[in-house]
Design brief:
Elements: E1 21-22, H1 24-30, H2 44-65, E2 74-84, H3 98-112, H4 117-121, H5 125-128, E3 136-140, E4 153-157, H6 168-173, E5 183-188, E6 194-198, E7 221-224, H7 241-250, H8 314-326, H9 330-333, E8 349-360, E9 365-374, E10 380-389, E11 392-403, E12 408-412, E13 416-417, E14 422-433, E15 445-452, E16 455-457, E17 460-462, E18 472-474, E19 483-486, E20 496-500, E21 511-515, E22 518-520, E23 528-535, E24 544-550, E25 561-567, E26 590-595, E27 606-612, E28 619-627, E29 636-643, E30 647-648, E31 653-661, E32 670-676, E33 679-686, E34 696-704, E35 711-719, E36 733-740, E37 744-746, E38 749-751, H10 757-760, E39 764-766, E40 776-779, E41 792-797, E42 803-808, E43 811-813, E44 821-829, E45 834-841, E46 850-856, H11 857-860, E47 875-880, E48 891-898, E49 903-912, E50 927-931, E51 938-944, E52 951-958, E53 964-973, E54 977-981, E55 988-995, E56 1000-1007
Parallel strand pairs: 1-6, 2-3, 2-4, 2-5, 5-7, 16-22, 30-36, 37-43
Antiparallel strand pairs: 6-7, 8-9, 9-12, 9-13, 10-11, 10-14, 14-15, 17-28, 18-21, 19-20, 20-28, 21-27, 23-26, 23-28, 24-25, 24-27, 29-31, 31-34, 32-33, 32-35, 35-36, 38-49, 39-42, 40-41, 41-49, 42-48, 44-47, 44-49, 45-46, 45-48, 50-51, 51-54, 52-53, 52-55, 55-56
Helix pairs in contact: 2-8
């Protein structure tokens, strides 16, 4: 089971919520690739911390010897982003009042400066002396990023009802100030049990140590508004210690028990080892199983209730001060201009923003767009701006303007063409304002970065042994993305591959892109894209791998074409596991080869390999090839699944497939896996095949047994041809839906397809293509509508690609019949290819070897109306079933195959105890027809009764004097045609009385001699 650790604080019974949890561990696990210390507790970050602590202690000692003091205190500017619902006024709901925010700042200052003497005095003696003044203070910012006055509070309305850690970037994108100058503190409603999280700091990259970069865009602390500060809109038990705890993380502190048992560590010498967090306010008699002594549950980095928290230790102070002295962004906070009152000076133009518009995507021509603003108290009439690319001056612009205080002007600069591949920095700087030096340099510069992809002709090959280029990554959420790792592939020692860590990636639905160079396919008529990948699913997760093709030199999926996609089990190359997946060798890798010929002749093609995150398991990609020719030596393709059939009536079925050798080498063996409803049921290897290149063959695989009577989904995967790696796994697997149904019925049988009958009745319908609709019953003008007030029929309706839909009868017992036939009515309409087959099975549907009828083209569809316009639009068919008389497991299926907007209807399907076509009109429902009349030696009675179970019928013949000539009894009559012989009777008029539950009628019979 994948666990998200990190519970934070157990609330007292009187609080509004039952639990309070800290999201530090799962949130920073999500950022572990960016701050590797979180993934390696004893790794690089802690090594860096130890070195910097020693260095800082040495500096402090030197300062004391010289009579100076190093950073007596750190003052941190805070901006509070209040995220509330639209329409909430200040002080209402999530839109918390300023006084609540001020109470939080006051709590932070008391806690971090050890001024909470009441709580400290209650500490046990052994801990009281450890309550440390961290020398850290907090103030609300006085100026915003533009240098304008602020109270340090930003209020933003959002329609989101609540937020979780996977939405961290979306939350902070609503409002975020530069993390080098501000501690961004967010107040919002958090979903679930978590009520706060913080981003861990990073090292300053000591020489010889490699660290990732934690994203600036998400740097900050998030607190549920009900636990920020004290009083007002805060929960009753909140004293603001949630923020104290999370800001401790923000400054580099870990949970006091080290997020493990007695063997885990928070890397602080003066905090006792413990085996886990504490909740509420534990009794003084509490003893740690790790130390056999009282734990320090009053520490702010434990999970106790707010009222029981009291201290940071000197060791924790040391860690936080190292972060504030050396960690990127954190080290700038103490010197931030945000703490100073803003000033307005004369002659102060500034650059408010810089953006780059791609005016010619494929030519890599950029138009810098500059927004100027007058921040000074004098009119600005002229500004000189220098434009540079990678530090090289491109042009200096002299801009005539007329800007009053805080007025703005937007300027689109000349196009800049950058042809050199790689990352480039475009920067602008104000040189002069009003023909003299600008009086405030802080707002005079801005820069933006752009990536120019390499252009390449075919072939392109990348095994990642020497790095990522000429490919590059697009990371929209600044979190996990494609990275190079060492991973075995079974063939190359020290193999490197691309890795996407879905296992720890909380942001479900995110897509991370690996983009190719710009490809020139103008000189080729064919092209192929192939690569290898490895993936093991996590239970019930649907991570995905997609391939998109861009034709406009952009890496935007909105304008690209998707040519491949696989998700979850469909993507798997290894069994499902709850552990982080890492391939062990060649058997857990697969290949994909995709035809790019549809894009041949174009010269601005870019391939986008996209990982889709569903918080599942890890994905690896390696050995990319883009070539004008297809050269797959080992490639077995699964072309058809013949069995299980779409509908059958047995819990056991053979598995019969058609395979093709799509490669160039002969195939002697292959392995397979069979999945039913997402669970692997069978696996094995077929040897001795001798399958030549481009040859196809039918293979029987291991049968399926103990199937339940319901719809199922089978998936068959082929792999390891000749024990090697298949070059194209995209053609190695097929899925199909099927239904196990053993419903039985005698004949005669009629099906009029009333509404809802396909979900509740005798007939079974299925689309073998997974996820597509099958036959349905709909109201429509029917072949007998003149006799009925309402009619419905079965309909197969098609859209898009060509598909097949099955409508199967129950299993028919014909073992005691002498004759049998099927009559039905059909109508076909719409646009697009369409065919209708009638198939028969004698084994309950396990196989369907008998084709009884096939119609297509104009024979099937005389016109294109989407529904039968009238009763006369229907066509009638009669099929003799005499070949199946004596069989007891006969099944009939209507199989429609079509695409586009084509559709076909079937109605009034009747199984008769007759082998001859019905040449007369049907009697009315609950009626009977008498023919021929007059007659000489015999006549027939054709019944059409409503009850599908049939009715017992009595037939009595009377002469003209009222005497009974004979009486006949016919049980379970439905649609039978009975022959009555009367060769001995005299000519004349007779009366025929016919009685059943629903029928009591008298008909006149004329016998001629």
């Amino acid at each position: 089971m994948k666990l998200l650790l990190g519970l934070c604080f157990s609330l007292l019974p009187f609080l509004a919520l039952s639990q309070e949890k800290c999201g530090f561990v799962p949130y920073n696990k999500q950022l572990a690739e960016l701050s590797p210390a979180l993934a390696q507790p004893q790794g690089a970050f802690e090594h860096w911390m130890q070195l910097r602590q020693k260095e800082l202690q040495l500096l402090k000692t030197q300062e004391l010897l010289q009579g100076r003091q190093l950073n007596a205190r750190f003052v941190i500017p805070v901006v509070v982003h209040v995220i509330h619902r639209p329409g909430e006024g200040i002080g209402q709901g999530r839109n918390i009042p300023k006084e609540q925010i001020l109470s939080q700042i006051a709590t932070l200052n008391r806690d971090f400066r050890a001024q909470n003497t009441d709580e400290i005095n209650k500490l046990p003696e052994q801990f009281r002396s450890l309550a440390a003044d961290t020398e850290i203070e907090f103030v609300l910012a006085k100026q915003d990023p533009e240098g304008l006055p602020t109270e340090g509070i930003v209020r933003v309305a959002s329609s989101e009802t609540s937020w979780d850690q996977s939405e961290d970037l979306q939350l902070k994108s609503l409002s975020h100030w530069p993390a080098s100058n501000y501690l961004n503190l967010y107040s919002a409603q958090i979903s679930g049990d978590v009520i706060g999280w913080a981003q861990f700091p990073q090292s300053d990259r000591l020489s010889g140590l490699e660290f990732g970069e934690a994203p600036e865009q998400t740097d900050g602390v998030v607190i549920d508004y009900r636990y920020l500060g004290t009083g007002f809109n805060a929960a009753g038990g909140s004293r603001g210690r949630t923020a104290t705890h999370e800001i401790g993380h923000y400054f580099g502190l870990r949970h006091i028990w080290g997020d493990g048992g007695c063997g885990a560590d928070d890397y602080v010498n003066d905090t006792p080892v413990d085996d886990g967090p504490h909740q509420g306010c534990p009794p003084d008699e509490t003893i740690s199983v790790c130390t056999n002594a009282r734990p320090m549950w009053e520490n702010y980095m434990d999970y106790t209730s707010d009222e029981c928290m009291a201290l940071f230790t000197p060791g924790q102070r040391s860690r936080m001060q190292v972060v504030l002295q050396y960690s990127p962004r954190r080290r700038d906070l103490n010197n931030s201009i945000a703490k100073q009152e803003p000033t307005v000076v004369p002659n102060d133009a500034g650059i408010r923003s810089l953006s780059l518009n791609l005016s010619q995507l494929c030519e890599r021509q950029f138009s810098p767009v500059l927004e100027l603003r007058n921040y000074g108290n004098t009119q600005v009439t002229q500004v000189q701006v220098a434009l540079r690319v990678d530090g090289t001056l491109i042009r200096t612009y002299t801009i005539s303007t007329n800007l009053g205080y805080l007025d703005t002007q937007t300027l689109t600069m000349d196009e800049v063409e950058i042809n050199q591949p790689g990352f480039h920095t475009v920067s602008v700087a104000i040189v002069q304002t009003n023909n003299q030096t600008d009086n405030k340099a802080l707002n005079n510069t801005a820069s933006a970065q752009v990536y120019v992809p390499l252009r390449s002709s075919l072939p392109v090959s990348q095994n990642f042994q020497s790095g990522l280029e000429p490919f590059y990554t697009v990371n929209p959420d600044f979190s996990y993305t494609w990275e190079l790792v060492d991973v075995p592939n079974g063939t190359t020692a020290g193999n490197k591959a691309l890795f996407l860590n879905f296992y720890d990636y909380l942001s479900e639905g995110q897509r991370d892109i690996l983009a190719s160079p710009i490809l020139d396919l103008s000189q080729t008529s064919t092209a192929y894209f192939s690569f290898r990948y490895a993936y093991a699913p996590y239970p019930r997760s649907e991570d995905g791998l997609e391939v998109w093709v861009s034709t406009d030199c952009s890496n935007k999926l909105e304008t690209a074409t998707r040519i491949y996609a696989a998700y979850g089990e469909e993507l798997a190359t290894a069994p499902t596991t709850e552990s982080p997946f890492r391939p062990s060798g060649a058997s857990e890798w697969a290949g994909i080869s995709l035809d790019l010929s549809a894009f041949a002749g174009l010269d601005n093609i870019q391939l986008l390999l996209v990982g889709y995150n569903d918080f599942g398991n890890n994905l690896y990609v390696d050995d990319i090839q883009i070539s004008p020719t297809y050269s797959a030596a080992l490639n077995v393709a699964l072309t058809r699944i013949l069995q299980p059939s779409p509908v059958f009536g047995s819990p056991t079925t053979p598995v019969l497939v058609e395979v093709k050798n799509a490669g160039t080498q002969p195939i002697q063996s292959l392995s397979y896996r069979i999945w039913v409803d997402g669970v692997q049921q069978q696996s094995g290897t077929r040897n001795g095949l001798a399958l030549a290149s481009q040859e196809s063959s039918l293979l029987e695989l291991a049968p399926l047994t103990n199937l339940s009577y319901k719809p199922h989904l089978i998936r068959v995967d082929l792999h390891s041809p000749n024990g090697g790696i298949d070059a194209n796994v995209a053609d190695n697997r097929l899925s199909r839906s099927f239904v196990v149904d053993s419903t039985k019925s005698p004949i005669p049988l009629r099906e009029s397809f009333p509404l809802e009958s396909l979900s509740e009745g005798l007939w079974t319908t299925v689309s073998p293509q997974p996820g597509l609709p099958a036959w349905e019953t709909v109201p429509v003008t029917g072949p007998q509508s003149a006799q009925q007030r309402q009619n419905s029929a079965a309909r197969a309706q098609f859209t898009g690609i060509i598909t097949e839909k099955w409508l199967a009868s129950p299993i028919l017992n014909m073992s005691r019949t002498q004759q049998a036939g099927l009559q039905f009515w059909y109508y076909a309409g719409g646009e697009g290819p369409l065919g209708l087959r009638v198939l028969a099975s004698t084994d309950g549907g396990l196989s369907w070897p008998h084709e009884l009828l096939y119609r297509e083209g104009t024979e099937l569809r005389p016109n294109n109306a989407p529904a039968p316009p009238s009763v006369a639009s229907w066509q009638k068919e009669f099929i003799s079933l005499q070949a199946f008389v004596g069989q007891e497991r006969v099944r009939i299926a209507f199989v429609a195959r079509g695409q586009g907007s084509s559709l076909v209807y079937v109605d009034e399907a009747e199984f008769y105890l007759s082998n001859e076509p019905i040449t007369v009109n049907l009697p009315e429902r609950n009626g009977v027809s008498l023919y021929p009349n007059p007659t000489r030696d015999s006549f027939k009675l054709h019944f059409n009764l409503e009850d599908p179970a049939g009715e017992d019928v009595t037939v009595e013949l009377f002469d003209s004097r009222g005497s009974l000539v004979f009486s006949r009894f016919y049980p379970t009559t439905l649609n039978q045609i009975y022959l009555l012989e009367v060769p001995q009777l005299y000519g004349g008029i007779y009366l025929l009385r016919i009685r059943s539950t629903s029928l009591d009628t008298v008909k006149r019979l004329v016998i001629q001699r």
